[in-house]
Design a protein that fits this description.
Layout (H helix, E strand, L loop, with lengths): L5 H16 L5 H14 L6 H18 L7 H38 L17 H17 L8 H9 L12 H8 L7 H33 L8 H32 L16 H7 L2 H12 L9 H19 L3 H19 L1 H10 L6 H24 L3 H10 L8 H6 L11 H22 L4 H6 L3 H18 L13
Helix pairs in contact: 1-2, 2-6, 3-4, 3-5, 3-6, 4-5, 6-7, 8-9, 8-18, 8-20, 9-15, 11-12, 12-13, 13-15, 15-16
Length: 492
């Protein structure tokens, strides 16, 4: 079930109503049933994998909890069982064919025979997210950071909680499990705040991301038809598309949970205002970047090792992060690029600071800050080329021809199918709507740096507040895309 679907607009109010009408000690049943229904609306058969993963990790967690911290070695086999089962399932469904095709290509290049069969398996929705969530639980139980959950139903709800089940945020047991045992009364202010957060997410998804997708897909699915400014604009637009698509999903998830009383972790904090790549990754997909930090980077040694090993740890972490995003060499290159960015920034930190001082840039702090922000944005956009391109050859073409001639962006408009868009007949209007909506969003982001936009609106008279709400609603209805476009991160 998509958040941006008619089904969800019926499903969510029904679930919330039943949730608040049900006694506190039985609400987990309502949420668990709703979560499985939400997941099974895609492909019911794949709920078997979700159930199997839940039961296995519940049992291994309970078994590990029988041993004290002094008997940690006795916990280890059960941790290995949990990790192996989850990673094997993820590998089979997501990576088997990728590894198989890569091995086949290598064998052909070496003149060898290779006969491993390929499997046509549909990737289970959200498998990358819920496997990471349940693996973090098993690792935390093993290390004694948390106690194993005794209630199978509550544990199952922790894995399947529908707002964040299929695309995060990837929650930690220490944050969510305790909340699932708490009692929340209906609170008008909290419910309204949650609905506002959801509305902001829908605006980013339906008005910005889905309009930009019309233009971006036209170029990136046919890159050899374009050159110059067309390729550059498509790349910049994709940067905003993926941000609005994924952060929009997170806003809806966080808002939906907030309506019922639960606090999910923030997943984005205005990442395109970052002054360094390291800062970017502290603001982008926070639940995933912090997962890799805690469960891969730090166990590898983090920065508590010799320099070359520190750089290696960073690079490997981002390579694995790239592979997590997709079974394609484009994602691996994308991850490697960000690993390179971070290592390069560490190696050249003194030289770059010296250069900034030498040219007098540090004498103008505000200008220096925006030069840094723009530089990071350019680097991130360059890496997005590999993330979005359908193949490495497409990515290389886009890089090569982005600065060959000016191109003609108007040719994109002619190829966009706009028959289903209310009150729109030309692709140029999609372009205009997208740009204006991005400016509105970034204005909100600038305001958020100094305070809450919601509080700013609430301080105004009722007539102004409701005027803002109605204008926003009309804008979504007139300019939003209502073709039930999937969220980008569903593919992961």
């Amino acid at each position: 079930m998509l958040f941006n679907s008619t089904e969800f607009f019926i499903f969510f109010p029904v679930v919330v109503t039943l949730y608040f009408l049900t006694p506190h000690n039985r609400r987990w049943i309502i949420l668990l049933l709703a979560s499985y229904y939400f997941y099974m609306s895609w492909k019911p058969a794949y709920s078997i994998i979700l159930i199997a993963s839940t039961v296995l990790d519940y049992l291994t967690g309970r078994t590990m909890s029988r041993y004290s911290d002094e008997e940690k070695n006795k916990r280890r086999p059960y941790l290995y069982i949990s990790l192996f089962a989850n990673l094997a399932t993820l590998t089979l469904f997501k990576y088997y064919n990728f590894f198989n095709e890569s091995a086949h290509g290598l064998a052909q290049g070496l003149g060898m025979n290779y006969a491993m069969p390929a499997f046509e398996l549909l990737l289970p929705m959200g498998i990358s997210f819920y496997t990471f969530q349940t693996m973090s639980y098993s690792i935390d139980v093993y290390h004694g950071r948390i106690k194993a959950e005794k209630h199978l139903g509550i544990f199952a709800l922790f894995i399947t909680f529908f707002p964040q089940l299929v695309a995060g945020p990837i929650e930690r047991a220490e944050n969510l499990l305790g909340q699932l045992r708490s009692s929340f009364d209906f609170d008008y202010g909290r419910v309204v705040a949650g609905l506002r957060r959801m509305a902001w997410g829908f605006f980013k998804k339906i008005v910005i991301a889905d309009n930009l997708a019309l233009l971006v897909n036209q170029v990136y699915n046919n890159p050899t038809d374009y050159e110059g400014i067309t390729l550059i604009l498509a790349t910049v637009f994709f940067a905003f598309q993926i941000y609005c698509d994924f952060s929009g999903y997170s806003d809806i998830a966080i808002g939906a949970a907030q309506v019922m009383g639960y606090n999910l972790m923030e997943n984005f904090r205005r990442p395109y205002f970052s002054k360094s790549i390291a800062e970017f990754w502290s603001r982008w997909h926070i639940s995933l970047s912090s997962w890799f930090r805690d469960y891969l980077y730090i166990p590898l040694g983090g920065n508590r090792v010799v320099k070359w090993r520190w750089y290696y740890n960073l690079f490997i972490t981002f390579m694995v992060s790239g592979l997590w995003h997709g079974a394609n060499w484009t994602f691996i290159v994308w991850g490697a690029l960000h690993g390179f960015y971070l290592v390069f920034a560490l190696v050249t930190a003194k030289q770059r600071n010296a250069l900034a001082q030498a040219i007098g840039l540090t004498n103008y702090p505000l200008l220096y800050k925006w030069v840094q922000v723009l530089s990071v944005f350019v680097l991130v956009c360059f890496s997005w080329i590999f993330f979005r391109a359908n193949s490495l050859s497409d990515a290389l073409y886009i890089i090569k021809y982005s600065f060959v001639g000016l191109g003609n962006f108007s040719q994109v408009f002619a190829g966009v199918n706009l028959d289903h868009i209310l009150f729109m007949e030309q692709g140029a209007k999609v372009f205009a709507v997208s740009v204006i909506a991005i400016l509105v969003m970034e204005t909100v982001h600038l305001i958020q740096r100094n305070g809450s936009v919601s509080q700013l609106i609430l301080q105004r008279p009722a007539v102004i507040r409701w005027s803002v709400y109605y204008i926003a609603l009309i804008a979504v209805l007139l300019f939003g895309q209502f073709g039930n476009q999937e969220f980008i991160y569903f593919q992961f």
